[in-house]
Fold this sequence. Notes:
Blueprint: H1 3-31, H2 36-50, E1 58-60, E2 71-76, H3 81-96, E3 103-109, H4 119-126, E4 130-132, H5 135-142, H6 150-153, H7 168-193, E5 200-203, E6 224-229, H8 250-259, E7 264-265, E8 268-272, E9 289-292, E10 296-297, H9 306-321, E11 333-336, E12 340-345, E13 351-356, E14 359-361, E15 364-365, H10 376-387
Parallel strand pairs: 2-3, 2-5, 3-4, 5-6
Antiparallel strand pairs: 1-11, 6-8, 7-10, 8-9, 11-14, 12-13, 14-15
Amino acid sequence: xxxxxxxxxxxxxxxxxxxxxxxxxxxxxxxxxxxxxxxxxxxxxxxxxxxxxxxxxxxxxxxxxxxxxxxxxxxxxxxxxxxxxxxxxxxxxxxxxxxxxxxxxxxxxxxxxxxxxxxxxxxxxxxxxxxxxxxxxxxxxxxxxxxxxxxxxxxxxxxxxxxxxxxxxxxxxxxxxxxxxxxxxxxxxxxxxxxxxxxxxxxxxxxxxxxxxxxxxxxxxxxxxxxxxxxxxxxxxxxxxxxxxxxxxxxxxxxxxxxxxxxxxxxxxxxxxxxxxxxxxxxxxxxxxxxxxxxxxxxxxxxxxxxxxxxxxxxxxxxxxxxxxxxxxxxxxxxxxxxxxxxxxxxxxxxxxxxxxxxxxxxxxxxxxxxxxxxxxxxxxxxxxxxxx
Length: 389
């Protein structure tokens, strides 16, 4: 099968999966007319029972204020292709449901059109609020006007086997510029732009780590952040617990190809924490797995590149995840407030136990290798049974 035919088949499968999410959303919020707070209260009742024999509580992934809309901000830095898809899902939901459970608040970017970001194009196309603070321009004005590549000059995360890691003092300086200085200014712009707090942040190709400085106006109610990742993060080193397929874009896919063990390439939807301390710089892609996609099964005898496989994963998995906010699906997600044993796997598929915050969807645990989403029919049926319809 050539790549064009392969991508066409992936697109058809992706559309089928997403239609199932839209149909389920219409059943919950349209036909049944549940309110988000009613779903959360129903979940909380069950979660109290599930946690009764555990040394923890299960809390909502998305906190709901009955008197305020549930708002979603989308962050991006480049093509905004997944962000654009998510915006379009909001438009579809508005046609299906009179009062959608989650509202798109706007988009945020650290790059302008002049630096090859399409955020401003989306603002014009969809007439949605945009908070933009171009990092290149900001860096040249306040840090070093002669630096040709401010993003490279402030990089502070490196793989552990890199040979060009700067000194700790230099990494700390870079961290301070991005997280404390730049993000504080961006946070002020966000606070002055939106009247309602943000409950959900969707990282859709945002190339900086998040920190609480981005939301100075809601320090006691920070948004839940999720990120799409082009690799199967259920695989880890059983000794160090380091994720084997962490990394950026096609780099994670290339690692999976190099291991020559995978017939299916799964993407992951992960929880993202707030990186407020320099001591956290190694904590990249370490959050709880919120969902796993169906993945891309590579045809026999094919020789697709990592970039081609990643583009297919974006269609089948990332677009699937980008429907979770518009459909209100994430409101069924809970998470333990303390780490508990969660099952991951080593490279050979053997179980590897890690203490981590565990994820619950509806009335079932879906953590680690058992994350929600690989079998959409079974998982949606499970939620339908939970709601008794």
